[in-house]
Amino acid sequence: MSLLEIAHLSRNFDGILAVDNISLTVEEGETISIIGPNGAGKTTLFNLVTGTDRPTHGEIRLDGRSLVGLSPDQFASRGMARTFQHGRVFGNLSVLDNVLIGAHTRRKRPHNLVAELLAALLPFPSVRTDEYRLRQDAEAIIALFGERLTPRLHQPASSLSYANRRRVELARALALHPRILLLDEPTAGMNPTETAEMLEFIRTLKQRGLTILLIEHKLALVMALSDRVVVMDNGQKIAEGSPEVIRTNPQVIEAYLGHKQHQRDVAAQSAQAQVPTEKPLSRLAVETS
Ligand SMILES: Nc1ncnc2c1ncn2[C@@H]1O[C@H](COP(=O)(O)OP(=O)(O)OP(=O)(O)O)[C@@H](O)[C@H]1O
Ligand SMILES: [Mg+2]
Questions:
Q1: Which of 82, 149, 196, 216 would be a feasible disulfide site paired with 145, CB 3.0-4.6 Å?
Q2: 10 CB less than 6 Å from ligand 1?
Q3: Residue 284 has pLDDT above 70, yes or no
Q4: pLDDT class for 274, splitting at 50, 70, 90?
């Protein structure tokens, strides 16, 4: 049985099929990248697979158990953790508290409000031990980011650089100890040095056996990290295969790189610059890294 099974998943927004009959299986330990032009439906697919949104049709099974209809919290406690395309952290909370939020989602909680209040007012030794353990765990996860985050443990997230806020968000997702980590453009807005650092970080997670779904426009990163690549266009899966196979697939070049080329042409026209009409994928990958 596959770790994650997505079957005939669709999401219709008032006539727009943002996700159109997508099926995909993910095995334990795999890194799968989802690529495709803007508006292809990649983020919508992540929203469905993490419970942020509900499918119009289709199935999502983790370890053979259906997740459809559960709340985002329930998706998270079953082991689905994500980061968001535009980054989401609690600006007024410290780095540590942001990561502790992830850790608490995993914690076995008291079942009702009274019990929750009692636990807060009169912490029993087991609760205290639990809190201590969660904090140790959160600090250990933050330490994975070395000097980037460790000296900033008690600073509000709002005081951090953009790249560091994205690292905090990733740390929060990791604090869930997810079965599957979903990263939506984790290097968007990062400079080449930060991007290279993130690539190495994700590679380490992969080497530790974490299962990863990655949405990414930087093809050099996709090619370096992925066991498999899924290409989406207009809500549909138009190709799937190893990075080597995807790199040379004519449909992919047309749908993905065609759009990119179009965007470049528009930008170039407005700047009245000359742009070569054809570029090999390898060159594009280097340029976008
Ligand atoms: N909540 C929504 N209501 C209506 N339409 C939506 C909604 N969310 C997404 N869409 C539409 O669904 C389509 C897919 O959007 P999505 O954000 O999933 O694309 P994407 O592949 O993540 O694009 P990008 O690379 O720009 O992030 C788009 O046409 C978008 O406008
Ligand atoms: Mg998106």
A1: 149
A2: no
A3: no
A4: very low
